[in-house]
Specification:
By secondary structure, this protein is of the alpha/beta class. Helix content is 41%, strand content 20%. The protein has a 7-stranded parallel sheet, sandwiched between helices. It has a 3-stranded mixed sheet with strand order 8-9-10. Helix 10 packs antiparallel against helix 12.
Length: 345
């Protein structure tokens, strides 16, 4: 009887998937999209870790999450609550995702408005490690309650991953878990593996992980000339510096109904000194008294703080003069709003 050549068939499937994964990786690179494949056993804290990551990166990156499971949408709904784009991938009973399945998910998720995509693979320490998804990097989570001997029992997943997160370190005192042992065993499998003890619950160690993730992400196109730090004119920056000091010093005393106008901004002839004349507008006479303060103390304090920041920004000495005026209901006057440099955008 002929021997069944299971290994040869399996190798053929793997070879075809590896080719498709390489193609997907090249396409994502061209589009400037970073795909991270996150693997772990069930209950390790993948979704909690992703929620913590999404909250910390909110406003800095456009994030999408693909949640893979045999038949559930609980995790995708949990991620959507954080405000990131999230979809659920049902694997039809399969215990892993391959490159084609990942591509199908990306086609639904990516519309040109995503920079980082995190794939939360099926909860399993065996199957997901065998299939290249097309991800740029692979990461895995090992939670403290699982024990420190997992690298000895499941060697492949530690071999293919770039990062190991040891999660739930907040419960270390209650478990027989040896951090040094898991480091030793994991590096036996993969000497280049980066290891981060974290607690997704408390946030401990997550900042260090995000630094590594930030280093992996591709740089976007240069949108401004070298040395440019803002697209706003210097006059507007000076006004915003003064308004920032107002809000910091008076947030408990007056509402945010203040505006700042720079009426003069010029450099003196043959010197590096900049003359900056600023008028602070408020909506009520009582607010004017609060801004000025007893004997002018508050206005002097605000002006001194603002001048220091102006000089640091301009790299020159600044002579700052400030006045306070009342302009009732200026926030209801479109012309006044535009004059102060504020727009609906």
């Amino acid at each position: 009887m002929d021997q069944v050549r299971v290994i040869e068939v399996k190798q053929s499937i793997f070879a075809d998937n590896d080719r498709r994964a390489a193609e997907l990786r090249a396409e994502l690179k061209e589009k400037g999209i970073f795909l991270l494949n996150l693997m772990s056993a069930p209950g390790s804290g993948k979704t909690t870790t992703l929620r913590r990551t999404a909250e910390l990166l909110k406003g800095e990156l456009k994030i999408g999450v693909m949640e893979a499971d045999i038949d559930s949408d609980v995790d995708a709904r949990a991620m959507a609550e954080t405000g990131v784009k999230a979809i659920q991938l049902h694997t039809g009973g399969m215990c892993h995702l391959d490159a084609d399945m990942t591509r199908q998910g990306l086609d639904e998720l990516v519309d040109g408005d995503v920079e980082l995509v995190i794939l939360e693979n099926v909860g399993n320490l065996v199957c997901p490690a065998e299939f290249d998804t097309g991800a740029v990097k692979n990461a895995m989570i090992l939670s403290v309650p699982e024990g420190h001997d997992k690298p000895l029992k499941y060697p492949l997943i530690f071999t293919v991953c770039d990062v190991l997160l040891i999660n739930k370190i907040d419960v270390l005192p209650w478990f027989d878990f040896d951090l040094e042992k898991v480091r030793e065993y994991a590096h036996m499998r993969n000497p280049r593996l980066q290891i981060f003890p974290v607690s997704a619950k408390t946030g401990e160690g997550v900042d260090e992980l995000l630094e590594v993730l930030g280093g992996w992400l591709p740089e976007g196109p240069q949108l401004f000339p070298d040395g440019a730090v803002t697209d706003q004119p210097e006059r507007q920056i000076m006004a915003e510096i003064v308004r920032e000091k107002l809000l910091r010093e008076l947030d408990q005393e007056i509402p945010h109904g203040t505006a700042v106008e720079v009426t003069q901004f010029s450099q003196r002839d043959d010197t590096d000194i900049i003359d900056c004349h600023v008028t602070i507008y408020c909506e009520k006479a009582s607010h004017k008294g609060i801004i000025i303060g007893k004997g002018g103390a508050m206005l002097k304090k605000i002006s001194t703080q603002a001048r220091k920041d102006m000089e640091a920004f301009m790299g020159a000495k600044v002579y700052l003069e400030t006045w306070v005026k009342v302009k009732e209901n200026w926030r209801d006057n479109p012309a006044a709003i535009q004059n102060f440099g504020y727009t609906e955008d």
